[in-house]
Write a structure and sequence with these properties.
mainly alpha, two-stranded antiparallel sheet, 18 helices, globular, binds phenylalanine
């Protein structure tokens, strides 16, 4: 046990913080638009399989590496592998991925903060349909000063929490905000499904059309599972390193995964029934929630206030995720280079802000700057969420399953658990050793057309 390491203050602190990292824009912004672009219920079905078969077991493995290693991703892999350069490289890949994700995630987080301000100003009050809302979104997001201002402000928010130290800020915020967010999402679901014409949307979310399933949708569903669970880059590993050995990793993991999945599915039910009721096309891409939600609020009593609260909560949900991203690269820098925490947080946050500028500009003027046909924003999103995270997942599974080895890993896994049925441990073992790495590899290869 590393006596100098900060630990979560309360028993459920870890669950709340990790769920705070997991639940964010991935659930409310990204999941719905991926569902809308990739076949509705069929995508949800694939997503659930990925979460259950690969996500949950690898979440357990990643937390386990962190709690046992008691360090940042690079340090934990280094210690547990006894300095093997390959595994250190895996930790480094995680830190780089954290950088990349934060650099574009923060832009969207900035939009939600911007939407809080616009909601207060009443900018959405007279919007009658999603087309008008879409126009407004385009106008706002294509103004560099608007996008960059909120990108910067959001980074300052993130830095200030990491600056203050993790435990109190994150734990406290998550405890109040998460239930509030859940509540408001449910209010919006009820509103959405009771709009005239909402049925088609419910149908869209429940009726699986298997012809929609292609190699590409499976690949996207897998990437989204990793992204949404904050899995494969060391965020859970880092949070796990602050976790007490008196608590059960499998229990916490199950809670985190259920909460994350529940909020994503509810977000689907919040958007699509309303979208179909308004006769819109589901495939709208990243602007989806910004086109639909402002209008839905106009059909709710006291919509003005609810809209402000909603975007505020979305901002906080995004914040509990950006914190976890900045935390990974900050602890890495603090541990490995002996730079004081506060200095590291400011320097890194600023660097990510700068690296994030091209991502923001992808919506304002740099739309035509293309890499492999993708905008800079889409490209960074694609390589980090769809390539690096699942790749990190393969390595985490292989590390625990083979290199560090099940024999050594299981006793650590059992610490803090009571009565974990042996068949669950063996199922986990089989998934981590065989199912997860093989499945991820097959999905990878098929997506690039190799099989
Ligand atoms: N899981 C977060 C979300 O869904 C995003 C995230 C990815 C956070 C990776 C940390 C690490 O919004």
């Amino acid at each position: 046990m590393n006596a100098n390491r900060e630990q979560w203050g309360s028993k459920i602190g870890f669950i709340l913080a990790a769920a705070g990292s997991a639940v964010g824009l991935g659930n409310i912004w990204k999941f719905p638009y991926l569902v809308g672009e990739n076949g509705g219920a069929a995508f949800i079905f694939l997503y659930l399989i990925c979460v259950l078969l690969v996500g949950l077991p690898v979440v357990i493995a990643e937390i386990l590496i962190g709690r046992t290693g008691q360090k940042n991703p690079v340090g934990s892999f280094r210690d547990l592998s006894k300095g093997n350069p390959f595994w250190i490289g895996v930790g480094v890949l995680g830190v780089i991925t954290g950088f990349l994700i934060l650099s574009y995630y923060n832009v969207i987080a900035g939009w939600s903060l911007g939407y809080v301000i616009e909601s207060i100003k009443g900018s959405f009050q007279n919007l009658e349909n999603p087309l008008a809302a879409g126009e407004l979104f385009k106008t706002l997001s294509s103004m560099p000063q608007w996008t960059l201002l909120f990108h910067g402000l959001f980074m300052i928010l993130t830095i200030s929490i990491i600056y203050a130290g993790v435990t109190k800020g994150i734990e406290r915020a998550s405890k109040i905000m998460m239930p509030a967010l859940l509540f408001l999402v449910i209010v919006l679901v009820v509103r959405g499904v009771t709009l005239p014409g909402a049925r088609a949307g419910v149908h869209y979310l429940l009726k699986i059309d298997f012809s929609q399933i292609t190699g590409k949708t499976i690949f996207l569903a897998l990437g989204q599972a990793f992204f949404s669970l904050s899995l494969g880059m060391g965020a859970l590993l880092t949070y796990g390193s602050y976790m007490s050995k008196k608590e059960s990793i499998p229990d916490s993991a199950v809670n985190i995964v259920i909460l994350d999945t529940l909020i994503a599915i509810l977000a689907g039910f919040m958007i699509f029934p309303a979208l179909f009721a308004m006769g819109m096309n589901p495939a709208q891409g990243p602007s989806l929630i910004f086109n639909i939600l402002p209008v839905v609020f106009n059909s709710i009593p006291a919509g003005y206030f609810f809209r402000i609260i909603f975007f505020l909560l979305l901002t906080v949900a995004a914040l509990t995720s950006t914190i976890s991203l900045l935390e990974v690269i900050t602890t890495f820098t603090v541990d490995e280079f002996n730079i004081p925490r506060k200095k590291a947080a400011v320097l890194l946050g600023f660097t990510v802000f700068v690296i994030g500028i091209p991502n923001a500009m992808s919506f304002c003027g740099w739309q035509n700057v293309r890499i492999f046909g993708l905008t800079w924003f889409d490209f960074v999103d694609f390589i980090s969420a769809n390539i690096f995270l699942p790749l990190g997942g393969i390595f985490i599974a292989l590390f625990v399953g083979w290199f560090w080895g099940i024999k050594k890993a299981v006793p650590h896994l059992l610490e803090g658990t009571t009565n974990l049925p042996p068949f669950l441990v063996s199922t986990w073992t089989i998934i981590v050793r065989f199912v997860a790495p093989v499945l991820i590899l097959i999905i990878f290869l098929s997506s690039i057309g190799l099989i």
